[in-house]
Inverse folding.
C-alpha cells in the first residue's frame, strides 16, 4: 500500500500557494465604466424584456439595486445615445464566457444553494447559470428554468438518466413525485456527484432512515456505499439492484455449500421443472432467508436473517 | 393489507400550520385591502380507467382510478406593491398521490414554504396471505396447524423420505386456496416546512422541519429453515422527523453557513411474531433447520423477527466560501454526525424446546449478553477546495475531502445462536467494529482556449482505510481529461476521458473470522476478491455534441462508455462494461408547432466467476462456473405539440424495451454440474417492455375557459426469470405471489380549465 497523502498534500499546498500568490498578485480587471441609462429607457426599445411579473421585478430586487436591467447588462447610456454602434451595446449575458456569465448572476446569488458553485462539477465543465436558467424566457416558475420542469432541465445533458427512469425498478421521478434536485444540488455541494449530503449513504438515509442503523450485525459494504449494490436512477432488477439477486450476492460470496452454488436455469421452478426449483433462485432469492441485508438488530442473527 | 393512517399529531400540526398560513394573509387582506387572494387556475373533470389486470405495476407510484378529479388548483395572493406574495399549488387533490404546496414570501424579510407530498408505492396485488394479522402478530389458527403437524408426524414416522414437496403441497394447498388476498404496498406522506428569516440581510436564519409517515406493508422473506421460507407482508409504520436550524452569515466576499440537524426514525412495529404453518408445538433437533423434509419435521411453532430499529442522527455542520477578487476562491466544509441506536434486543428465538449448550432456555431474554443494542457511530466529514485563475486563461483547482466512519459501538459476544428458530448452534460469535475512512485529494489544471473552449486535466487519489475487512487500505488513482467547447455558434461539444487504477494492500481472506470468537478456516473461498475491495482498472469516455443546423432545428447526440476490469480477481466480478449512445432531434418550423424525437440504446455486460464447494472450500478450477450478464436497453420517444389561437393539440409515444440474457458455463466433471451435461442459460434475465402513448386536445371556448380531452395508453409486459411461475407454494417456500405483472390500460378523461 502506498501512502501518498503526505507528499500529495504537501505538493498540492505548495502548488496552490504559488498559484494563489500569482492570482492575488494579478491585477483585478478594471470595472466597466460608462453611464447608466435607467431601466425605463431600456424597456422603451426592448419592450419584450420587461421584468414585471418575474422574481427580478419584485421589490426585493429593487431593494438590492436601482440599476434594473443594467445591474446585469452593465451601463447602457452610450448605447441608448447611439443604438446603431455595435461596439457600444451592453453585454448579452448568454454570449459571455461561461465563467463571466455566471459571475453576473453570482454577484447577487452567491449564498444559499449557490454558495458552493465555485469548484462544482458544472462550473468546471463550462456550464453557466444561463445554460439552464433564463431571466427573460423562462418556462418554469421561480427558478426561471429554460425547460418545462426541473427534471427536463437535467435531461438536456444527462439523457442516459432519462432512460434509466423508465426501467422496471426506479425512483418515482418520471411520475413527478421526486426530482433530481431532491438528491443533487446542480449548483454544487459538499458531497461527490453533487449530492446534497456529505456522502451517498447520508443522502440515501434522508429518505431510507430505516437502514441508517447502526445495527448489531452490520453488512460492511452497505455501510460504505449503497451504490455497491444499487444503482439509483433505474434498474431492470428488483430493488434498484445493479445485478439481480442471487448473483448480486454471489459476486461477493463464494462460500462453501449454498452461497457458491451455481443457480442456473436448471434451478428455476418452471411448470415443467417444479421439483428442481430452489428458493435461492426465485422470488426474493437470497433475501428469502437473509432479509435484513442492510443490517440486523437480532443479536442471534449474524447471517442477517430475521 | 394496507394500513390506513388516521390523523396523527404531526398531520394535525401541519394542517393547522397550513390553515394558519392561509388564514394569516387572508386576515391581513381583510384589514389591509391591498392584499388580495386570487384563484388563478382550476382544472377538474372526470376520468375513466380501463385496465385488464390488477397488476400493482400499473399504479406503482400513482393513483389512477375512475372518478371526478381535480388535477390542479393554483391560488395566488399579493399586495399592490408586490412585497407580500402567496402561492398555493394543489395537485391531484384528494388522491393518494396528491401534492399540496404553499409558498409565502415577504420580500426581503422572511418566507415560508410548506409542501405535503403523498407517494404511494404498490408492490403486488392480490397476494395470498395464509395468516391473520393482529398488530405485530401473524397467526394461523391452532387447529389448522395441529392438523398439519399431525399429518406430518404420521407421514414422517412411516417414511421420512416421503415428506417431499408433493406431500407438503397437498397438505397446504387447501388452506392456501381458502386464504384471503391482500394488496401489498406503502403510502408515504411527506411534509416539508421551511421558514427563512433575513434573506436580504447580512445574517439569515432558517428553520426546517420534515416529517414522513410511511404506512402499509412490503414483502418480507423470513424463514423457519432452508425448506420453510414464509414470505409475509411486513407491516410498515414508520415516522421519520428531521429538524434543522441553520444560519448564514453573508460577508462581502463570501459567506459562512452553520447549523444543527436532528433526525429521528421511529419504527412503530419493530418486532413481529409469526406462526409456523407446519408446527403447532415447539420441537428441536439438529436437522430442524431443514424441516419440513426427509431429515426433520421439528422446529419452532412461532418465529420472531427484529425489524429495523428506532435510531437517531444529530449533525453539526458548517461550511463557508470566500472569494478574493476574480482570481481566487476557497470553500471549506465540516460536519460531524452522531448516529445512535439503542433498541431493546429480542431473545435468540421463541422455541421453548431449545436450550443452549450451558442448559439455559434459549428463549429467555435474560441470557442475552446485553438487553439493548447500544450502537454508536460518529461520522466526520471535512472538505476543502480552492481554485485560482492565473495568466488570464489558466485555472487551477484542488480539493481535499475526508470522511470518517468511526464505530464506537461495544462488541457483543454471544456463545451461540438459534438456527432458524429450531436449533441451538453452538458457535460463538462477536460483532466486529467495522469502521472505515476515505480521503480524496484532487487537482485540476484548466486552460480556457479562446472565449468558448476549455481543456481540463485532473488527477485524483481516492484512498480507503478499513477495519475488520479483507482489504485494509486501497488507493484509486484517477486521471481525467475534459474538453468543453462551443465549436462554433451552432455547435457545442462536451467530452471527457477518464482512467482509474485501484491498488490495494494484501487481501486478507481470514478477515471474516473476526466475527467468530474462535478463529478457524473461513468458509469463504480464498480465491474470491470482493469487487468493492478488489484491484481494478477502469476507463470511461463520454462525448456529447449539440448542433443547431438551421433555424428551428436542434440535434444532440452522445456516447457514454465505461469499462471496469478486475484482472487480479480469480473469483468474483471479473469485468463490467457499459455502452450508451443516444440521439435527440427537435424541430420547430414555427412558433405554433414543434416535434421531438429521441432514441437511446444502453447496453451492459458483466461477467463473474464463482466456484462451487462442498463442506470445505474447493481449490479446484474445474469446480468453477461462469456467468455472463447481458442487458440491452432501448428507448424511443416521439411527439409533437401544436398550438393555434383557440386550440392546442399534443401527442406523444414512448417505448422502452429491456432484453437480458444470462449465459452460464461450467466444466463437465466439476461439482456445479454434477451429472448434468451443461449449464442452463437464463434467457429472460428481465425482459421488459413498456409502451406509453397519449394525446391531449384543448379548446378555448371563452377567454378564460378551456375544455380538454385526453387519452393515455399503457402496455406493460415482463418476462422475469426470478418472478416467473411463482405460486403461493413452491419447493421450500410459501410466497405472497401477488400480481405485479403484465397490464394494458386505457385512460380517458375530460377537463375543464378555468383561468381567472
Amino acid at each position: 500500500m502506498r501512502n501518498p497523502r503526505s507528499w500529495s498534500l504537501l505538493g498540492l499546498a505548495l502548488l496552490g500557494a504559488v498559484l494563489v500568490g500569482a492570482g492575488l498578485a494579478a491585477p483585478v480587471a478594471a470595472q466597466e465604466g460608462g453611464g447608466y441609462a435607467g431601466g425605463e429607457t431600456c424597456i422603451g426599445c426592448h419592450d419584450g424584456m420587461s421584468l414585471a411579473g418575474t422574481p427580478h421585478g419584485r421589490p426585493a430586487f429593487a431593494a438590492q439595486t436601482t440599476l434594473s436591467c443594467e445591474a446585469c447588462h452593465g451601463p447602457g447610456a452610450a448605447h441608448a445615445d447611439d443604438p446603431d454602434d455595435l461596439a457600444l451595446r451592453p453585454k448579452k449575458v448568454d454570449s459571455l464566457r461561461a465563467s463571466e456569465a455566471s459571475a453576473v448572476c453570482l454577484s447577487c446569488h452567491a449564498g444559499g444553494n449557490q454558495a458552493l458553485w465555485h469548484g462544482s462539477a458544472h462550473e468546471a465543465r463550462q456550464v453557466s447559470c444561463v445554460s439552464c436558467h433564463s431571466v427573460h424566457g423562462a418556462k418554469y416558475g421561480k427558478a426561471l428554468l429554460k425547460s418545462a420542469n426541473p427534471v427536463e432541465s437535467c435531461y438536456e445533458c444527462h439523457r442516459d438518466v432519462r432512460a434509466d427512469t423508465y426501467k422496471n425498478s426506479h425512483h418515482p421521478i418520471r411520475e413527478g413525485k421526486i426530482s433530481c434536485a431532491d438528491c443533487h444540488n446542480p449548483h454544487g455541494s459538499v458531497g461527490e456527484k453533487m449530492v446534497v449530503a456529505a456522502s451517498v449513504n447520508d443522502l440515501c438515509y434522508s429518505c431510507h432512515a430505516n437502514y441508517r442503523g447502526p445495527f448489531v450485525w452490520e453488512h460492511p459494504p452497505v455501510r460504505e456505499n449503497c451504490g455497491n449494490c444499487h444503482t439509483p436512477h433505474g434498474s431492470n432488477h428488483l430493488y434498484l439492484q445493479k445485478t439481480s439477486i442471487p448473483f448480486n450476492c454471489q459476486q461477493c460470496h463464494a462460500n462453501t455449500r449454498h452461497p457458491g452454488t451455481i443457480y442456473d436455469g436448471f434451478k428455476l421452478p418452471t411448470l415443467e421443472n417444479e421439483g428442481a426449483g430452489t428458493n435461492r433462485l426465485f422470488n426474493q432469492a437470497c433475501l428469502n432467508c437473509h432479509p435484513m441485508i442492510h443490517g440486523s438488530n437480532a443479536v442471534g442473527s449474524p447471517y442477517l436473517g430475521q | 393489507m394496507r394500513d390506513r393512517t388516521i390523523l396523527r399529531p404531526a398531520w394535525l400540526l401541519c394542517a393547522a400550520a397550513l390553515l394558519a398560513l392561509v388564514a394569516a394573509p387572508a386576515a391581513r387582506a381583510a384589514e389591509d385591502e391591498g392584499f388580495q387572494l386570487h384563484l388563478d387556475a382550476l382544472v377538474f373533470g372526470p376520468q375513466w380507467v380501463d385496465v385488464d389486470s390488477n397488476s400493482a405495476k400499473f399504479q406503482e407510484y400513482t393513483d389512477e382510478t375512475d372518478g371526478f378529479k381535480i388535477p390542479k388548483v393554483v391560488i395566488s395572493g399579493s399586495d399592490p406593491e408586490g412585497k407580500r406574495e402567496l402561492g398555493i399549488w394543489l395537485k391531484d387533490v384528494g388522491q393518494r398521490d396528491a401534492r399540496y404546496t404553499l409558498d409565502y414570501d415577504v420580500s426581503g424579510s422572511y418566507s415560508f414554504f410548506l409542501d405535503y407530498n403523498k407517494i404511494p408505492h404498490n408492490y403486488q396485488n392480490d397476494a395470498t396471505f395464509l395468516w391473520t394479522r393482529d398488530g405485530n402478530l401473524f397467526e394461523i389458527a391452532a387447529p389448522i396447524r395441529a392438523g398439519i403437524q399431525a399429518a406430518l408426524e404420521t407421514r414422517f414416522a412411516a417414511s421420512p423420505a416421503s415428506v417431499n414437496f408433493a406431500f407438503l403441497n397437498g397438505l397446504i394447498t387447501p388452506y392456501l386456496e381458502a386464504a384471503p388476498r391482500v394488496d401489498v404496498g406503502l403510502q408515504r406522506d411527506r411534509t416539508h416546512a421551511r421558514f427563512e428569516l433575513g434573506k436580504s440581510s447580512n445574517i439569515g436564519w432558517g428553520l426546517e422541519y420534515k416529517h414522513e409517515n410511511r404506512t402499509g406493508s412490503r414483502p418480507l422473506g423470513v424463514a423457519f429453515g432452508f425448506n420453510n421460507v414464509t414470505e409475509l407482508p411486513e407491516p410498515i409504520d414508520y415516522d421519520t422527523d428531521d429538524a434543522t436550524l441553520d444560519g448564514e452569515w453573508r460577508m462581502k466576499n463570501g459567506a459562512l453557513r452553520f447549523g444543527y440537524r436532528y433526525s429521528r426514525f421511529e419504527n412503530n412495529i419493530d418486532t413481529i411474531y409469526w406462526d409456523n404453518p407446519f408446527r403447532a408445538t415447539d420441537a428441536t433437533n439438529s436437522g430442524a433447520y431443514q424441516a419440513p423434509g426427509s431429515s426433520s419435521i421439528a422446529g419452532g411453532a412461532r418465529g420472531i423477527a427484529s425489524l429495523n430499529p428506532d435510531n437517531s442522527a444529530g449533525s453539526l455542520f458548517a461550511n463557508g466560501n470566500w472569494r478574493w477578487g476574480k482570481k481566487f476562491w476557497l470553500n471549506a466544509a465540516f460536519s460531524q454526525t452522531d448516529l445512535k441506536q439503542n433498541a431493546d434486543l429480542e431473545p435468540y428465538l421463541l422455541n421453548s424446546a431449545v436450550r443452549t449448550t450451558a442448559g439455559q432456555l434459549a428463549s429467555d431474554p435474560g441470557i442475552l449478553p446485553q438487553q439493548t443494542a447500544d450502537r454508536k457511530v460518529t461520522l466526520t466529514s471535512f472538505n476543502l477546495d480552492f481554485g485560482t485563475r492565473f495568466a488570464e486563461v489558466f485555472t487551477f483547482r484542488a480539493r481535499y475531502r475526508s470522511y470518517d466512519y468511526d464505530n464506537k459501538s461495544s462488541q457483543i459476544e454471544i456463545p451461540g445462536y438459534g438456527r432458524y428458530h429450531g436449533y441451538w448452534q453452538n458457535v460463538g460469535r462477536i460483532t466486529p467494529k467495522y469502521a472505515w475512512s476515505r480521503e480524496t485529494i484532487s487537482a485540476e489544471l484548466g486552460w480556457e482556449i479562446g472565449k468558448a473552449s476549455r481543456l481540463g486535466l485532473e488527477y485524483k487519489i481516492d484512498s480507503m482505510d478499513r477495519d475488520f475487512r479483507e482489504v485494509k487500505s486501497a488507493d484509486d488513482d484517477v486521471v481525467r481529461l475534459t474538453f468543453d467547447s462551443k465549436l462554433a455558434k451552432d455547435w457545442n461539444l462536451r467530452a471527457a476521458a477518464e482512467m482509474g487504477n485501484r491498488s490495494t494492500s494484501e487481501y486478507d481472506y481470514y478477515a471474516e473470522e473476526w466475527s467468530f470468537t474462535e478463529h478457524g478456516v473461513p468458509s469463504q473461498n480464498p480465491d474470491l476478491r470482493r469487487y468493492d475491495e478488489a484491484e481494478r482498472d477502469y476507463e470511461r469516455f463520454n462525448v456529447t455534441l449539440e448542433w443547431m443546423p438551421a433555424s428551428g432545428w436542434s440535434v444532440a447526440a452522445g456516447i457514454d462508455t465505461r469499462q471496469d476490469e478486475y484482472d487480479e480477481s480469480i473469483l468474483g466480478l471479473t469485468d463490467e462494461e457499459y455502452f450508451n449512445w443516444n440521439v435527440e432531434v427537435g424541430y420547430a418550423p414555427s412558433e405554433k408547432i414543434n416535434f421531438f424525437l429521441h432514441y437511446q440504446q444502453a447496453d451492459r455486460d458483466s461477467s463473474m466467476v464463482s466456484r462451487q464447494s462442498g463442506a470445505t472450500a474447493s481449490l479446484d478450477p474445474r469446480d468453477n462456473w461462469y456467468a455472463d450478464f447481458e442487458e440491452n436497453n432501448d428507448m424511443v420517444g416521439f411527439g409533437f405539440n401544436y398550438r393555434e389561437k383557440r386550440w392546442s393539440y399534443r401527442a406523444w409515444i414512448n417505448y422502452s424495451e429491456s432484453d437480458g440474457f444470462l449465459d452460464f458455463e461450467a466444466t463437465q466433471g466439476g461439482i456445479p454440474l454434477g451429472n448434468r451435461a451443461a449449464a442452463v442459460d437464463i434467457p429472460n434475465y428481465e425482459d421488459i417492455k413498456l409502451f406509453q402513448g397519449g394525446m391531449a386536445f384543448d379548446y378555448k371556448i371563452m377567454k378564460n375557459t378551456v375544455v380538454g380531452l385526453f387519452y393515455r395508453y399503457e402496455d406493460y409486459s415482463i418476462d422475469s426469470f426470478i418472478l416467473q411461475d411463482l405460486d403461493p407454494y413452491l419447493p421450500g417456500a410459501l410466497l405472497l405471489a401477488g400480481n405485479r405483472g403484465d397490464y394494458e390500460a386505457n385512460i380517458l378523461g375530460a377537463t375543464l380549465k378555468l383561468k381567472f
In short: The two ends of chain B are 43 Å apart (CA to CA). Chain B has three helices and 36 strands. Residues 1-13 of chain B have pLDDT under 50 and may be disordered. Chain B touches chain A through 205 residues (CB under 8 Å).
